[in-house]
Amino acid sequence: MRHVEQRPYADPEAAARKLIELAASIPPVQDGRIHIEKLNAPFLYQFKATGPEFGAGIKYAIEKGWLELHESGTYVRLLTSSDQLLD
After folding, report:
1. Coil, strand or helix: which one is 10?
2. What is the pLDDT of residues 57-80, one digit of tens each?
């Protein structure tokens, strides 16, 4: 029998909070823009998350009003700081 460990970012809220933390650490390039690949690469490779976890985290953060995703999908804007997510 093989035991499966719980993935830390399987919960969309946990994934969204990590994405906000990452976004807060990245200097925006123009008008508060953060290129999506600046979030995607560390989330997938450094934190060992999956594509669906990334997508669910982005969606959750947008629904909560923490991030704004441009219609092209190439960048996001941080609408809240990671300090404000303590609620």
Report:
1. coil
2. 999 999 999 999 999 999 999 987
- pTM for the full predicted model: 0.86
Q: What percent of the chain has pLDDT over 90?
A: 77
3-state helix, strand, coil in the chain (%, to 5): 50, 10, 40
- For 50, the token pair is 């999956």
Alpha-carbon torsion angle 85, 9, 18, 76, nearest 10: -100
Task: Spell out the SS3 assignment of 18-58.
Answer: HHHHHHHCCCCCCCCEEEHHHHHHHHHHHCCCCHHHHHHHH
Confidence of residue 54 (pLDDT cuts 50, 70, 90): very high
Burial of 19 (0-12, 13-18, 19+ CB in 10 A): buried
Pairing status of strand 75-78 against strand 33-35? antiparallel
